[in-house]
C-alpha cells in the first residue's frame, strides 16, 4: 500500500505543478509537424483524450508507450477521422507480446491529407494546384517489470509535404511509464522529444509535450474514470478527463471533456467528447465524436481485431464434430444376423 500511495502522490504533485503553467502559448506556430498533436483513436478521444494513466490496448499505447507493456494479446487496429477543415486522418497499428517474455512491440502509421490548394504567383495569377499531406511511421518497444510497471519508447519518422520544394523530414521520440496497482493506473509520458524537422537546410523543432495521468477501473461495475494534464511546448496546458462504462466487454459508452487552461473562449481544442464501442465476435467497432470549441465536430471510427479471440469458426448443426474419428474393428456393426436354419430346427425340439 505504501508503494501505491507514494506513486499516486508523485503523479498528483506533477499534476498540480503542471496545471497552472501556460506552456508555450506564445510559441504557437513555431514548431513543425503539428498534426502529431491531434492524436488518433475514438476510444481515447471519446473520453476527452484522457489516456496517460490507462493501459491495455494499442490505441492507448499511441499516447503513452509505457501502456504497451500491458498489451498481452496480439491486435490490429484501423482508424479513420474526418477533421474540422475537411481534411482526413488515417491510422493503422499492430502489435502484441513477444513470445512469453515481458517485452512488447508495436508498429503504426499515421497519415493526414490536408487537401488541395491553389498555387499563385506574386500577382495572384493561378499557376496550378498542389496537395498537402503529412505522414509518420512509428515503431514501439515496451518492457514490463513484473505485474505493476512498464516502460516504453517510440521512434517516429515524419514526412511533411507542403507542396513544391517544401518537403520536410525528421525523426523524434516518445517515452512513457505506466503503473498499475489493481484498479489504479498511473502514467507519465513525454511526446515528440528531440530531433528536428528539416525543410531543405532549415531545422524546426517538433511540438513536444509532457504529461501525467491517473485512472481508476472498477471491473465489477465496468466503470473507468481518467484524468490527464498535458503541458505542450506550443499551446496551452490542457486538462483532459473522461469516463467509460463497459457492459461485460460487449458494449461501451464514453464521455469526456478537454479544457485548455487560460485559453480564449473560442479555443478550438476545448470542448466535450462522446463515444461508444461494440464487440462483434472478437472485433471492436468504436465511434467517437469530438465537439471542439466553435470549430464544429470531428467524427472518428476504428476497427480493432484480436485474431486470438475471434470466434470465426462455423457452426456444427449436424453434430459432425461429435462423430468418432476412429472405429473399433472388433465391434460388430449393423443389425444382428438372423439365426441359422439348424438353430431354428433344434429350438422346435
Topology:
Elements: H1 2-18, H2 42-45, H3 58-61, E1 75-82, E2 88-97, E3 103-120, E4 126-145, E5 149-161, E6 167-181, E7 184-193, E8 196-199, E9 202-205, E10 209-218, E11 223-232, E12 238-247, E13 251-260, E14 271-280, E15 283-291, E16 297-305, H4 341-346
Antiparallel strand pairs: 1-2, 1-16, 2-3, 3-4, 4-5, 5-6, 6-7, 6-8, 7-10, 8-9, 10-11, 11-12, 12-13, 13-14, 14-15, 15-16
Explain the overall architecture.
By secondary structure, this protein is mainly β. It has one domain (2-311): Outer membrane protein transport protein (OMPP1/FadL/TodX) (Porin, Beta Barrel). It is 9% helix and 49% strand. It contains 4 helices and 16 strands. Strands 1-2-3-4-5-6-7-10-11-12-13-14-15-16 form a 14-stranded antiparallel barrel. β2 (88-97) and β3 (103-120) form a beta hairpin. The protein is globular and about 95 Å long.
Amino acid at each position: 500500500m505504501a508503494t501505491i500511495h507514494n506513486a499516486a502522490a508523485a503523479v498528483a504533485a506533477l499534476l498540480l505543478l503542471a496545471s497552472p503553467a501556460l506552456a508555450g502559448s506564445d510559441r504557437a506556430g513555431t514548431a513543425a509537424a503539428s498534426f502529431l498533436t491531434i492524436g488518433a483513436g475514438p476510444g481515447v478521444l471519446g473520453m476527452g483524450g484522457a489516456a496517460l494513466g490507462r493501459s491495455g490496448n494499442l490505441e492507448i499505447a499511441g499516447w503513452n508507450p509505457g501502456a504497451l507493456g500491458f498489451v498481452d494479446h496480439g491486435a490490429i487496429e484501423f482508424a479513420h477521422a474526418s477533421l474540422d477543415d475537411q481534411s482526413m486522418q488515417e491510422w493503422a497499428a499492430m502489435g502484441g507480446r513477444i513470445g512469453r517474455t515481458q517485452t512488447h512491440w508495436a508498429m503504426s502509421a499515421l497519415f493526414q491529407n490536408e487537401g488541395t490548394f491553389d498555387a499563385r504567383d506574386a500577382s495572384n495569377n493561378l499557376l496550378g494546384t498542389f496537395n498537402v499531406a503529412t505522414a509518420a511511421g512509428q515503431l514501439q518497444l515496451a518492457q514490463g517489470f513484473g505485474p505493476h510497471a512498464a516502460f516504453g519508447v517510440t521512434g517516429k519518422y515524419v514526412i511533411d509535404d507542403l507542396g513544391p520544394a517544401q518537403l520536410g523530414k525528421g525523426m523524434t521520440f516518445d517515452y512513457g511509464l505506466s503503473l498499475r496497482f489493481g484498479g489504479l493506473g498511473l502514467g507519465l509520458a513525454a511526446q515528440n522529444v528531440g530531433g528536428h524537422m528539416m525543410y531543405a537546410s532549415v531545422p524546426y523543432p517538433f511540438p513536444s509535450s509532457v504529461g501525467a495521468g491517473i485512472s481508476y477501473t472498477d471491473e465489477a461495475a465496468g466503470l473507468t474514470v481518467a484524468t490527464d494534464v498535458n503541458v505542450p511546448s506550443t499551446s496551452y496546458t490542457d486538462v483532459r478527463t473522461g469516463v467509460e462504462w463497459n457492459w461485460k466487454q460487449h458494449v461501451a459508452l464514453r464521455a469526456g471533456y478537454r479544457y485548455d487552461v487560460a485559453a480564449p473562449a473560442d479555443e478550438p481544442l476545448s470542448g466535450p467528447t462522446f463515444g461508444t464501442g461494440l464487440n462483434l465476435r472478437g472485433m471492436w467497432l468504436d465511434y467517437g465524436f469530438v465537439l471542439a470549441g466553435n470549430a464544429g465536430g470531428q467524427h472518428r471510427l476504428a476497427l480493432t481485431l484480436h485474431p486470438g479471440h475471434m470466434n470465426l469458426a462455423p457452426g456444427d448443426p449436424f453434430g459432425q464434430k461429435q462423430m468418432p474419428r476412429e472405429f473399433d474393428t472388433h465391434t460388430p456393426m449393423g443389425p444382428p444376423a438372423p439365426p441359422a436354419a439348424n438353430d431354428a430346427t433344434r429350438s422346435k425340439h
